[in-house]
Design brief:
Layout lengths: L11 E2 L16 E2 L5 E3 L5 E3 L26 E9 L2 E14 L2 E13 L2 E2 L18 E4 L2 E5 L20 E3 L7 E4 L3 H4 L9 E5 L2 E6 L2 E10 L2 E6 L16 E5 L2 E5 L7 E4 L18 E4 L8 E7 L2 E6 L3 E4 L14 E5 L9 E3 L2 E5 L6 E7 L4 E3 L16 E7 L5 E6 L2
Parallel strand pairs: 1-2
Antiparallel strand pairs: 3-4, 5-6, 6-7, 7-8, 7-12, 9-10, 10-11, 13-14, 14-15, 15-16, 17-18, 18-19, 19-20, 21-22, 22-23, 23-24, 25-26, 26-27, 27-28, 29-30
């Protein structure tokens, strides 16, 4: 029997369907099973590290009740200001209750950094202090964060917590937490990945969802985070069914897409004036357009790739070409269709000059980047040779770790 030396495992785990395809170069660098290992960038393999327990999610916290079928479930969103200032934001739901009063379900945000929840010891409530949104105090043994600005002389509620409009009851262990308008049980009523879309600029994270007005979440200080409404110019996003579903930044404009009333629309703000959508003449003024294609396909995502705005719909992929210098203006939009694959709801991942997105129906991962040979954008099926890991399942969440091995972690629906 001949002996073979495998000098690289760069192909990763391969589908049984390609076992006999020795004519495919990648098949000769793959393996039948690769469980609890990473493929390193240079082709070797390394055992997967274990997990470190960080703590319970808010829905499982022993200081509050859980929330029905959504108990303990949450959404994790990265917040990156610099290489030394990063957080993971935990969005979830919990129930505020007392035996003598009706309970209520509220949304919360908790903040994780350096592998642990953000927590501290808080100062006693002072009736003469004016508290801003997100600032904290201790009163009658309970920890609170302020729900409003200019919070002066409003003593925190100690019994009927759900009726308190000035203070949010935080966990008793010192975990820092603020009230969120996005309760998990409200976000996930339609499909498992019909969640929040977000985009960050400096310390401000903009969040959008088709059922909620857009919000900005800002970090003022370590223990002072707050939600703010966004005042838009131009009469956009002001009422139910007119809230956008996706957001990004492109060419110094803030870009929104897809409201319930206008699912094929894309709105681009005035250059560097991110809340201005009032149409006017001039190259830096807002741009609003509708994607007209062979089918009525709602916009799923907007993203910037290689200097151009990319629009992913549920049935196709488009680029916004702009003028001869590839700058988008009110008079130079120039949509160009790049493919007919379609995208699902899961927010794309940015990796170098490429994005990864989950194809419509949720079981295929594709990349999307510029190809000099064809002078266009194209995408490859990255799950083609390992489709046995995804066929029959839905991808519901994922995350990218650039260091040390450029690994994308994927969560399936099972």
């Amino acid at each position: 029997m001949a002996n073979y030396i495998d000098r690289t495992f760069a192909g990763g785990e391969m589908s049984p369907a390609v076992t006999a395809r020795h004519d495919i170069a990648k098949q000769r660098t793959g393996v039948k099973t690769l469980r609890n290992f990473y493929v390193q960038r240079f082709g070797g393999v390394q055992n997967r590290a274990g997990f470190q327990y960080g703590g319970m999610s808010g829905g499982e916290d022993d200081s509050v009740d859980t929330v029905g079928e959504f108990a303990g479930q949450s959404i994790l969103i990265p917040w990156v200001f610099s290489s030394s200032l990063t957080y993971v934001l935990e969005f979830g739901s919990k129930t505020l209750s007392h035996s003598s009063f009706p309970s209520s379900t509220v949304g919360y945000v908790r903040f994780w950094t350096n592998g642990a929840r953000l927590s501290t010891t808080y100062s006693a409530y002072n009736a003469g202090t004016t508290y801003s949104k997100g600032q904290t105090c201790v009163y009658s043994g309970n920890n609170y964060s302020s729900l409003v600005d200019s919070n002066l002389g409003n003593t925190p509620e100690t019994v009927d917590f759900s009726a308190d409009t000035y203070w949010h009851l935080m966990p008793s262990d010192g975990t820092y937490e603020i009230r969120s308008p996005y309760a998990y049980n409200l976000l996930y009523t339609d499909s498992p990945n019909d969640g929040l879309s977000y985009a960050q600029s400096a310390s401000v994270l903009t969040l959008v969802h088709p059922d909620f007005p857009p919000k900005d979440l800002s970090r003022v200080d370590t223990y002072e985070w707050k939600f703010d409404d966004i005042s838009f110019l131009g009469g956009v996003f002001g009422s139910t069914d007119n809230y956008p579903s996706t957001v990004t930044y492109s060419q110094q404009r803030k870009v929104y897409g897809n409201s319930n009333n206008d699912p094929e629309n894309v709105w681009m703000s005035e250059v560097s004036v991110f809340n201005d959508f009032a149409l006017a003449s001039g190259d830096s003024e807002p741009v609003i357009f509708t994607i007209n294609g062979r089918q009525v396909n709602q916009v799923k995502h907007v993203a910037e790739v290689a200097g151009k705005l990319v629009v992913l719909t549920e049935g196709a992929e488009w680029t916004v070409e702009g003028n001869s210098s590839n700058i988008v203006t009110p008079t130079a939009i120039n949509l160009r269709q790049q493919g007919y694959r379609g995208s699902n709801n899961l927010q794309p991942l940015y990796i170098g000059n490429t994005i990864l997105y989950v194809q419509a129906r949720g079981s295929v991962i594709r990349d999307f980047n510029y190809d000099f040979g064809s002078d266009g954008y194209k995408g490859n099926d990255l799950t083609l040779f390992a489709n046995h890991l995804f066929d029959g399942y839905t991808i519901v969440d994922w995350a990218y770790a650039q260091i040390p091995h450029c690994v994308v972690g994927v969560v399936r629906g099972d």
